[in-house]
Write a structure and sequence with these properties.
Layout lengths: L4 H4 L20 H15 L4 E3 L2 E3 L3 E3 L2 E3 L4 E3 L3 E3 L2 E3 L4 E2 L4 E2 L3 E3 L4 E2 L4 E3 L2 E2 L4 E2 L4 E3 L2 E2 L4 E2 L4 E2 L10 E4 L2 E4 L7 E3 L4 E2 L4 E2 L3 E3 L4 E2 L4 E2 L2 E2 L4 E2 L18
Parallel strand pairs: 1-4, 2-5, 3-6, 4-7, 5-8, 6-9, 7-10, 8-11, 9-12, 10-13, 11-14, 12-15, 13-16, 14-17, 15-18, 16-21, 17-22, 18-23, 21-24, 22-25, 23-26, 24-27, 25-28
Antiparallel strand pairs: 19-20
Length: 236
């Protein structure tokens, strides 16, 4: 089990802000830094900068920055402070919430919600997904309908099981650490505090928690039941 950033992310040098990860060693530290960084970058100087293209009606609230080449489609909502890098594609109905930093060449699908996330270059979030309080590595993928659950039922701090017991991750809102090039398939769920190593694929409909090492394939073995059915014509 590892909470070292270097285990999950090997491309920190090409983030939109050079040196942004300098001095950060633990997986939770980018999330801790994001809000204060955006406050300094966007809120205090009152930045509201749209360098991309809006195709339809886009709703902005608070402070934001949208990079060149980025396209925001109809009914996208950006609630700042939020930073969206260059050449991103934000599909209709998506919601970008405060504390989010999207790197370059990222995608957010139709109806998806991204809240307080650090998303590295090339990462994609497909349609109808929720990414909350998470760090997504280079070219990582969240499939359609994926949920990165970000709070426990009892609202206590997220934890990560280790050989010595449970490690307190220091925040009651904590989603998923998803390493470079890893994937969560359609309708998968990552429980609060889940750490997934790079190049790991979590197959659709799989519920994961805790630490999942690098270069694994993860799925749930389920038995499908089948029985005879009567002929019923459904009403219009």
């Amino acid at each position: 089990m590892s909470t070292q950033l270097a285990y999950y992310f090997a491309h920190l040098d090409d983030f939109p802000f050079p040196g942004w990860f300098d001095g950060l060693t633990r997986t939770w530290e980018p999330l801790e830094k994001a809000s204060a960084f955006l406050d300094t970058l966007l809120v205090k100087p009152d930045v509201r900068a749209m360098h991309g293209e809006a195709k339809g009606e886009v709703h902005f609230h608070g402070n934001y920055y949208v990079g060149a080449g980025t396209v925001l489609y109809d009914d996208v909502t950006v609630i700042g402070p939020a930073y969206i890098g260059e050449n991103c594609e934000i599909m209709p109905g998506a919601l970008i919430r405060p504390g989010t930093i999207l790197g370059n060449n990222c995608g957010v699908g139709h109806g998806s919600e991204v809240k307080h996330c650090v998303v590295m270059n090339g990462a994609k979030i497909a349609s109808l997904a929720f990414a909350g309080d998470s760090v997504l590595g280079r070219s990582a993928r969240l499939g359609s309908g994926v949920i990165t659950a970000n709070r426990k039922f009892d609202q206590s701090n997220a934890t990560l099981r280790t050989d010595g017991g449970k490690m307190d991750l220091g925040a009651s809102f904590f989603g998923c650490i998803l390493g470079d090039y890893s994937r969560l398939g359609a309708n998968a769920v990552a429980q609060p505090g889940t750490h997934i190593g790079p190049y790991t694929w979590v197959f659709p409909l799989t519920n994961v928690r805790g630490f999942i090492p690098r270069q694994k394939r993860v799925w749930s073995e389920e038995k499908i039941a089948m029985a005879e059915n009567e002929i019923v014509e459904l009403k219009p």
